[in-house]
Amino acid sequence: MGCVLAVAILKSVVIAQLASTGVKPAQGAVAQPISIPSTSSSNVASLPSLPMMPKGKSTVIGGAIRTVDPVRDQLTLKVFGGHSMKIFFDERTQAFRDGKKISLRDLSPEDHASIQTTLDGTSVFAVSIHILSQTPEGEMQAQVVGYDPQKEELTVRDTLSHQPIKVQVPAGMMVTNVGQAAAVSESGSAASLIKGTLVSINFQSGSDGRGIAKRISVLAAPGSSFVFTGSITYFDVHAGRLAIADAGDQKNYSITFDPARFPVSRDFREGTHVKVTANFDGERYVASDISVD
Asked: How many beta carbons lie within 10 A of that of residue 104, not counting itself?
C-alpha cells in the first residue's frame, strides 16, 4: 500500500511540473521526471573571447575590392598599379562607408577601399576597411626594383606580398629621406633611387586605375649604415639572426650577424638591451658591431 501511495504522489508531482510548462501528458502515457538544469554560475559556459589584435606595424593599402568571401572571411583587393592581394578579416575588423560604421556583410565587389592592414603570421589581416565614394589613397613600404625616366614610372616590390607594383611619379616630385642615413643627400628625384632602396610611398589612384605617387620617402639605401639601440625580441644564434625593438622609433628590425665574430651573442636573452651597428646591403641589415649594455 505504501509503495502504491508513493507512486501516486510522484506521478502527481510530475503532472504538476508538466502543467506548469503548458504540456499535457498523452492519455495512458507514463510521464518521466523533468530535470531542471542548474543556473549556478559554475555550470554556465562562458563564450570564447576573440584573440588579441596582431601587433605588427600597420600599412594602409588602397584599391578596388574584386571578391568578398564571407565563408572564408577573406576578400581580394586589386591594388592600384599592381596585383590582386588576398586579405583576411574577422569580427575584430571594423568597416566604414564614408566614415559611418557598417557591417562586414555590406562589403561588395567594385567598392573602392582604403584598408589598414597588418601581418598576422604570414597572412595579411584587415584591421579596418574604409569604403569611400571618393578615390581612396594608399600607403606602402616597398623596395625599389627600377625606374623608367621615359615613362616616369617607378617599379617597386611590396614588402607585404613581394609582388611588383608600378607607380607613376609626377615630374619634379622630390624624394625625401627619413632613415638614419641619407640615401640621397637631403632630397632628390625618383631617378636617384637605386635598386634595393627601401621606400615609403603615399599614392592615389588615377583615372586609369594606376597608382600616382604623392610622396616618396627613403627608409634605407644599399650601403647605408644604421645604429639600432633597444631590446632583443627574438634571436637564433645558430642561424645568426636577431630582432631588435629600436627605442628610437619603436619598430622591430631583423638583423643578421656572424656568431663566430660576435661571441657576445652567447649571452643573448630576450629582453637583453643591445646596441648594434649594421649595414643595409639591399636585402638585409648585416651587423658590423654588437655591444650589450
From this structure: 17
Strand partners, 137: 204
Closest to 102 in 3D by CA, of 137, 59, 68: 68
* Nearest CA-CA partner of 222 in 284, 153, 174, 147: 284
Equal fold, 59-131 vs 225-292: yes
Neighbours of 187 (CB within 10 A): 13
Give CA separation, 39 vs 42, 43, 46, 190, in Å: 8, 7, 13, 69
Q: Domain spanning 59-131 has what CATH number? A: 2.40.50.320
Instruction: Assign 64 a pLDDT band (cuts: 50, 70, 90).
Output: confident
CB atoms under 10 Å from CB of 121, counted, come to: 7
Query: 137-220 domain in CATH 3.40.50.300?
Result: no
Whether this prediction's pTM lies above 0.85 is answered by no
What span, in angstroms and rounded, lies between the C-alpha atoms of 273 and 278?
16
Residue-wise DSSP of 235-251: EETTTTEEEEEETTT--
Architecture category of domain 225-292 in CATH:
Beta Barrel (2.40)
